[in-house]
Amino acid sequence: MLSKNLLKTLGPGILFASTCIGVSHLVQSTRAGANYGFSLVIMILLANLFKYPFFEYGSRYANATGTSIIDGYRKLGKWAINLYALITLGTMFFVTAAVVVVTSGFMNNLFGISELFTSLQFPYPNLITPILLLTVCFGILAAGKYNVLDSLVKVIGGVLLISTLIAFTLSVLKGGSPPVKGFVAPDWLDFSYNNGIHLGFIVALMGWMPTALDLSAWNSLWTVARIKQTGYKPKLKETLFDFNFGYIVSVILAICFVTLGANLMYGSGETLPSSSAAFSAKVVQMYTTTMGDWSKWIIGPAAFSIMFGTAIAVIDGYARSSERTLEILFVEKKKVDLENRKREYISTILTLSIVSFIIGYLFVYNKSISMKISIFLNELFGNSTEGNTINGFKFLVDIATTISFIVAPVIAIMNFSLVQEKYVGKEFVPPKWEIILSYAGIIFLSGFTILFLVFKFF
């Protein structure tokens, strides 16, 4: 039986799920279903299975030690915390940029901001939405009002969860439409096709399934923060129940979005839009097709709210993890002044917002520059997106998710090392089945990374 204090433990797992149900689900899972039908469900399940232990270890370590797993990296040696800092620096701006671009699409689809400023003949109307979004996110985090928003997003997330399950059920009952004449199903196992276009998308799909593995450190940060907030030190099984609940929800929703994409678009001759706003409109349309036009007044705001919550969680999560990493590297055991910590936090979210906006501008919003970048990268690495040149926001998403997958084996090995008896004590060591799964996961992640790099470079 779980403790009656379980309610004091719940929170980090739900926050983890709300962070997952963003780009990986609304964008990548939908694309997987629309472009490949149900073929890639097995890859989604394998990614979730083999990443599971390493996400869970973030929560396990925090419960065992009362500190974040970032603190644990320092115990492995200075090389580990330096490597984590390098990985964070190399991924945080692209990940945030991708999330902001997608969120801006849902925001623009809901409020019509770009169309309004276009009608007013405002210069660069497509930049207004991401600027407004980042300004609001910065204001909420700088003012310390994230907790209130987080509670609201959880409620809205529940609405989206129920709506998605209803749409999924109706979609399954209705079944998919027969493919148009002349449709040829893509052979996703042909990794040599078009310089590995299928392999490139599979790696990008698994990169954020359910999310980037380096974000496992956030689980530990949230768990530690929850303990401090409630003053209750949960049992390990309570912490893991909270995490497992969020993880299972994110897996179920990933399958739901694949199903919607497969039943409503696969073989139809339609292609998903390359504009983030048009793409978000297509996602909402999938719900209205199965549930009726009335549902757009629920799905549109709910989908935007989830992405908005994800955007804030990503900016906040990277700020917190970066802040703790820098403290470990440069402050060590010195007492950190709370006022200085607040200034450092604000400086970090401001820098993250500005740099991620610049990346979004270069890769998505400035078509001339983004075209040149796309051509250069495709010539350098081979074609890994859905076309030989720029494909709108999906190009940036694929880059961010691919980078996340490539660094995943390193994070997996470090997280696994930290749940040994030497660091957490005998009672917190993972069970034998999870240890076996960890070895299999490291082999799986490393194998696919090597396969991808070999195809891209050789």
Percent of residues in helical segments? over 70%
Question: Which CATH architecture?
Answer: Up-down Bundle
Task: Classify the secondary structure makeup into a structural class.
Answer: mainly alpha
Catalogue the unreliable spans. none
Query: What is the CATH fold-level name?
Result: Amino acid/polyamine transporter I
Our estimate of the beta-strand percent is: under 5%
**Morphology call:** globular
Count of separate structural domains: 1
Mean pLDDT: 86
Order of helices and strands: HHHHHHHHHHHHHHHHHHH
CATH superfamily: Amino acid/polyamine transporter I
CATH domain class name: Mainly Alpha
Radius of gyration, whole Å:
21 Å
Q: Tell how many strands the DSSP assignment holds.
A: 0
Distance between the termini: 54 Å
Largest sheet: none
Number of helices: 19
In short:
By secondary structure, the chain is mainly α.
Please, could you describe this protein's structure?
The structure is a single chain. By secondary structure, the chain is mainly alpha-helical. It has a single domain (about 5-455), classed as Up-down Bundle (Amino acid/polyamine transporter I). Helix content is about 75%, strand content about 0%. The longest helix is centred in the C-terminal third of the chain and has 36 residues, at about 295-330. It is globular and about 60 Å long. The model has no long low-confidence stretch (mean pLDDT about 85).
Q: Would you spell out the secondary-structure blueprint of this structure?
A:
Elements: H1 6-9, H2 12-20, H3 23-36, H4 41-65, H5 69-76, H6 78-111, H7 113-119, H8 128-142, H9 146-174, H10 197-207, H11 216-230, H12 236-265, H13 276-291, H14 296-331, H15 338-365, H16 367-381, H17 393-417, H18 421-424, H19 432-457
Helix pairs in contact: 2-11, 2-12, 2-14, 3-10, 3-12, 4-10, 4-11, 4-12, 4-17, 4-19, 5-6, 6-8, 6-13, 6-14, 6-15, 6-17, 8-14, 8-15, 9-12, 9-13, 9-14, 10-17, 13-14, 14-15, 15-16, 17-19
